[in-house]
Amino acid sequence: MPLLHKIAAVVVIFAVALGLWLPGDPGGGDSSDTARTSAGEREPGTRGPAGEPAAAAASAGPSKQAAPAPVATVQAAAPAAAAAKANELGQVPVLMYHRIIAKPELSLDRSTTEFREELVRLAKEGYVPITAGEFVTGNINVPAGRHPVVLTFDDSTPGHFALDPQGRPKADTAVAILQDVARQYPGFRATATFYLNEELFQLAGQESAGLKWLLQNGFELGNHTLTHKDLSTLSKGEVQKEIGAIESKVVSLTGTHTATLAYPFGSAPDKKSWAEKKDGAYGFQGIFLAGWRPSISPHDADFDRFAIARVRSEGKIKENDCKEFCSTAWLDKLKAQPATRYTSDGDPRTITFPRPEEDRLAKDLRGRGRVY
User: Fold this and answer.
1) In angstroms, rounded to a whole number, what is the distance separating the alpha carbons of residues 250 and 243?
2) Which of 144, 147, 227, 246 has the fewest CB within 10 Å, making it most exposed?
3) Rounded Cα–Cα distance for residues 210 and 154 (Å)
4) d(CA 241, CA 243)
5) Domain 90-337 architecture
6) How far apart (Å, rounded) are the C-alpha atoms in residues 299 and 274?
7) pLDDT, tens digit, for every residue of 172-216?
């Protein structure tokens, strides 16, 4: 190659390299765009790499993409939480009650005496009731060293709740007994979630006053469908009508939507989405099944808020599966194996657990995680 040609080639290469290195671009763009993006800042209107609209991401090009968010680090637990042996990835008993009556007639019935005795046991063993809605959302505010329990009542029968002539809970109803036990055991919260059918405790003209009393006094209302049909046997329209009709009735009486649903018979419809949400009618934060075991923690990576297990309230009966799977049996197991149950660290903002449990924590909650 002639010498002049060699010199020209070197000049061209040097010019190209210089143009890539110097600030600015041929179109007059500001190089500070690239600097901001590399520092992890996002342009207005974007949602970051996980949620950025496809069109915006495509037009932005490589230099516009924000750096991946760093994985949150689990921190050391507070000394008081470690001393309490907190385990907020432990199991939570969600107890399922049906009729509360003086003398049980059916297998699902509990006598008023049995109900009171079970509440006293829970209080003595350090359990604190929370609502189904609080549990589903992980909003568990329980003193350090104590254990959450969710009390749920299906079918809205008169033994659950009634008002006396003075407008107070009628004696020997579940609400009256629960309040009485709470008075005897400070820290045992008088709350529960009632899953409603169209009878609404047979309040006979006092439906609005009764439901509002429950809400104003720390109790929660849930959806249990209008007529308690097996949703697995119904069409989409029928499922939505069963759920939507009772939801509409509750809203008309209280001005408030329910947060959770309990499947009648524990049976899901052919498509679970039919029950989870219908625009303009209902939308649940969680759905509960029938009972056989405690629920895993809502902080657990495997927690499914649309299929939450419950435990049937009953003693250990040799003739059926309550010998192993009902409330008395499960409370015995949790007492014998305290490390397996949910024990609070006393701070609802953090999630404390023994270090060997760390892999079970949901990834999006790692920033709240605390280990010891």
Assistant:
1) 11
2) 227
3) 17
4) 5
5) Alpha-Beta Barrel (3.20)
6) 25
7) 999 999 999 999 999 999 999 999 999 999 999 999 999 999 999
